[in-house]
Design a protein that fits this description.
The structure is a homodimer of 698-residue chains. Chain A contains 24 helices and 28 strands. Chain A is globular. In chain A, the strands form eight sheets. In chain A, strands 3-10-11-21-16-15-14-12-13 form a nine-stranded mixed β-sheet, with helices on both faces. By secondary structure, chain A is α+β, with helices and mostly antiparallel strands. Among the domains of chain A are: 105 residues; 82 residues, Herpes Virus-1; 73 residues, Signal recognition particle alu RNA binding heterodimer, srp9/1 (2-Layer Sandwich), CATH 3.30.720; 127 residues, Rossmann fold (3-Layer(aba) Sandwich). At the A-B interface, strand 2, helix 4, strand 3, strand 4 and strand 8 of A face strand 2, helix 4, strand 3, strand 4 and strand 8 of B. Chains A, B: InterPro entries: aa-tRNA-synt_IIb, aa-tRNA-synth_II, aa-tRNA-synth_II/BPL/LPL, Anticodon-bd, Anticodon-bd_dom_sf, Gly-tRNA_synthase/POLG2, GlyRS-like_core, tRNA-synt_gly. Chains A, B: It is found in: Cytoplasm.
Amino acid sequence: MTEQLEAAVIAAQDAVTKQGDTVRSLKASAKEGKVQKNDVDAAIVKLQELKLDLDAKQKELEKIAGGKSSQSREAFRAVLAGVLERRLFYIPSYKIYNGVAGFYDYGPPGCAIKANITQTWRQHFVLEENMLEVECPAVTPEIVLKASGHVDRFTDFMVKDVKTGECYRADHLLEGTLEKLLEDKKNPLTAEQTKEARDLLSTVGELKEDTLGAALTKYACKAPDTGNDISAPFAFNLMFKTSIGPRGDMVGYLRPETAQGIFVNFKDLLYYNGQRLPFAAAQIGNSYRNEISPRSGLLRVREFTQAEIEHFVNPDDKSHPKFSLVADLEPLLYSRDFQMGDEKKPHPIRLGDAVSKGIIANETLAYFIGRTWLFFKRIGINPQRMRFRQHLLHEMAHYANDCWDGEIETSYGWVECVGLADRSAYDLNAHAKMSKVDLKAHETYPEPRMEEELKIVVASKEVGQAFKKDAKTVTEHLQSMNECDAMELKAKLEAGSGDITTIDGQTFTVTPKMVDIKKELVRKTGRNFTPAVIEPSFGIGRIMYSMFEHAFYTRGEANDAGSDDARGVFRFTPLVAPVKATVFPLLQKAELNEVANKVSTSLTAAGLSNIVDTTGTTVGKRYARTDEIGVPFAITVDYQVQTDNTVTLRERDSMAQVRIPVPEIAGVVKSLVDGVSSWLEVQGKYPAQQAAANSEVA
Amino acid sequence: MTEQLEAAVIAAQDAVTKQGDTVRSLKASAKEGKVQKNDVDAAIVKLQELKLDLDAKQKELEKIAGGKSSQSREAFRAVLAGVLERRLFYIPSYKIYNGVAGFYDYGPPGCAIKANITQTWRQHFVLEENMLEVECPAVTPEIVLKASGHVDRFTDFMVKDVKTGECYRADHLLEGTLEKLLEDKKNPLTAEQTKEARDLLSTVGELKEDTLGAALTKYACKAPDTGNDISAPFAFNLMFKTSIGPRGDMVGYLRPETAQGIFVNFKDLLYYNGQRLPFAAAQIGNSYRNEISPRSGLLRVREFTQAEIEHFVNPDDKSHPKFSLVADLEPLLYSRDFQMGDEKKPHPIRLGDAVSKGIIANETLAYFIGRTWLFFKRIGINPQRMRFRQHLLHEMAHYANDCWDGEIETSYGWVECVGLADRSAYDLNAHAKMSKVDLKAHETYPEPRMEEELKIVVASKEVGQAFKKDAKTVTEHLQSMNECDAMELKAKLEAGSGDITTIDGQTFTVTPKMVDIKKELVRKTGRNFTPAVIEPSFGIGRIMYSMFEHAFYTRGEANDAGSDDARGVFRFTPLVAPVKATVFPLLQKAELNEVANKVSTSLTAAGLSNIVDTTGTTVGKRYARTDEIGVPFAITVDYQVQTDNTVTLRERDSMAQVRIPVPEIAGVVKSLVDGVSSWLEVQGKYPAQQAAANSEVA
């Protein structure tokens, strides 16, 4: 019932948005004399009816759902999406060609906010931590992604509609089917069936090909669009493939993550850093994943901006010199224990305690969790709606030591926006092996140490006599044994069993006389080692979308009957707001415009982006328009400026207004935007605006 | 002779660079006790010998070449390239896998400079001009690039080595062959042959397939690496191709330019701008061209950053409201006339005069030439070494009205860094046709006008009787005639000749009774039209590389025998410098380090990127290191700080030093970086540093 009503609300909202568009375009045409006034009026009446209908449906939904949850997630999202698209925050790409799923364009406010978030990220991480920033190409030769494992393993399981050939993600399909079964009140599952379905649901993402196939068959999954049968699941590589150069013989891919560009440059970066560890490198850039069926707007797209950090450390010392700066923060941690416990809830935990109790594996990982938490707060994410979720053991790659996802709550549920992983030495080892280039760092011990070293001495005479022309092969084989193999051979030889060694299919019997294997204590002044890497990886688009949801709210009802302005507001922090201030002359008069332009010039000189709105509409409507793109401050120039040279300054969320002398206005806005002074302070210092002329309903 | 000597200088420089690397790495190993001191000394002696050799060769070259031109371009470039790569400004991508031609990574200083240039561009163009910034994906469906013409025509001619299959750009190959022939003193060409070769050389880039093939045959061009025969030239599309989605049936390309993303969004952007013209949209992003044989470092790469503007105007009014702000600038203009004249030299011309004399087609194009000139100056391009070259008529696309290239002089010659083109309505018309979406703007006349309008009235009775079931086809055909066809038909009918009209292969005879064609004067309040577009398109990597060349110089000789620091200096403007200041404690002492950290914190708080260099090397060497990445200001903390709380501030290019109180240092550097005060002013205000302790040779 709720579900149907929600769908009805969304449809009604949609109808209101569309009719709003119609009214707007009719009004524009009417101005040009192309449309009759009564056609416009009729459209406005229709719009009012649709709004009443929406209102009724929303109230009905509230009655059923009751309380806070009445703000249906889907309805909220539909209103938000309407504003985001209408004001060109972002729109589907290639719209005039009917679009391509998974691609979005950012329009002016989206672009500005994205630049602000990215710049804040650079300030917060790269500059404050002295990271080495790099920029590498997206087009990547196959060998790099072969080494990293992406060519072989960066896949999702896909099924096809056997009749239409349409493709679906196998895990999403199974998930959908299971959720429907579990929610089906008419044909309830038995307790046993319910448990089985729930267990399967919690591991859908990690199923192997055969188990996944069996489950799809067992639950009789069908193609959702047609109800047709589906194929067995098969692996589909998510990388966009291309060819580099004119010969056509060099396979390339668009990078699926920016990280590999840092790993392949490790040697040069280490040199740049004076051969010292730890250090971090960072990269902001676009990555590409050819998703099987993109959905959820900006949350799952095929081209997206990542900001990744690779922090290289000595694997034996993952302490962080600045950890004390975040040790007292208490982010919501959703540890493995909390996830497996009965309550299934995250709890605020002091990061210092999380490390000392072993909840988070090391200081460096915890340091980045703390810094991420601060970053989220800084750009306007609600701290009550972000958490750090630890990967369960079966979710982690075999080489990973510990992984946490920075998750933000949205209308889609908890969304993974940041991955923080201790990846050990996996990536550098993989590239060292494939490229045959040494990717090690050197550590000089504070003072020399005595360390055990493996010594393998081959008796060339004995080996030569025994194996003749193969002597060289056997000698090299023996000398290149790793510690484990060598000690095993030593044990066998000491047990007198001799050893049959196979090299390239040939068999050789080694005797104790041929080789001497021992461990010696050697004085060492240092060692070479492959650094471990702690990787915080940020999805900028997901963070941005989540921030949109946390910043958006609606205010009041439409304020005059024919109004087609939605009353949505974004409470963007001044830091990320696309425009810092708008300037309105109260009326379209030259003398007011002149002051407005003067104010605008002084704002620009102070480095504050601003727009002058000289349209003749009411100030209330112009405020609504500026609220809708989250401009924090609005300056109105009215006739009082001719008496006392003051203008009004309005704060977006409180809607309160004060009067400020023109020469001071840029300085006041600048101090508010930089966070040097608060709105309360400004209200204390300057007189409140009393008159109704500039009020919201004007 | 000069050529050989230049090659020798480059080789010698190379040897010095390599030996310098060896010395550096030996020194590092010696510190760890892995290498003997005398091995290091031997390497240093070798380095000194190589430097002497280089010196001798350079002097010899100077003697031959004489005067200023003695600074051989190639030798200059080799020294510059050594510094750029060693200090990680940029390096070939995927080095550990032996690289892939045409791809570069930016390291920390390169990244910082690129971010500064891009940010300056955004400030200079987007913010100061209130442009609408957008960000669109690089992955583009085929239909978009089919409409723009890239799928069919974005090609270069390629030839293959018939034996090895190696690929070459046909025009480059012909160019190289012609240049060699013209320079060959042993077998000089006749006057006639010389003229023919020169004429061909000047049009190589515009040759068609057959003429190009004939020329390659005539001049017996061979594969340069092997001397083998080459294939006939054939067109190779320069776009990277890929496939979108899992079905494999949607062809996509990586965009070869960012502009198309703006054109496909025109309708929404016009709406966003309140349906008003003119307005400009801008996009900064990466573009991709699968070059046949990339060369010339950053100048011809396969993935590069563009910053493009599409300024939409009424085709009947290309004036620019802010033109007066640039009218008095006098950039070097290399107009069509100057290029075709005898002198073949650009001249400084006032932009106002260039428009009034018709040298530049319109104000808007000239406005952007002026703004581009200012931008170049702002980021440190030498105004004497930049010019605007007008396209010759045969270089322009048929639809273009006027095109100018912003060119910068480098060691590679004049490099096209910006293209400024009046593209008329070509792009919007192309997308309107392909997408069938109306991409027109509306203009309301200041007052209604009487305009001629074509009226075609079909007499349905006559047509119906004559053509029966085909009546509808004929009627539609007649009604949809354009003005030209209609007037032609009218003339024929009036001449009494009747008309035989062919529709889809069928023939119909139209008589005067069937159709009435006339032009009527109609009262019009406005009109719909496709805007023209003026496109300034910037190649960020090319501009950046050219700026590197203009900023680089060398200073003095290596200052102590064993020094392995090159004495290169970048005179970056503070605006683009990767780091604004370095801070050195004179000695590795806790009390000096503490002050240095305090100074660094105050710089960071003022928003100034800075690094603290606490290595124990001499201050002279540390100055050299910081000069080499173009840091404009260096602050040294010596023991005088304990007496009077002052530190020294050194300006990079004059190397002059003043003493400044610690509490004032951040403010002084900030005012210098922001251009609020000059170094001369600072020198006037603070006492000069006298002591030798901090001098360059310490």
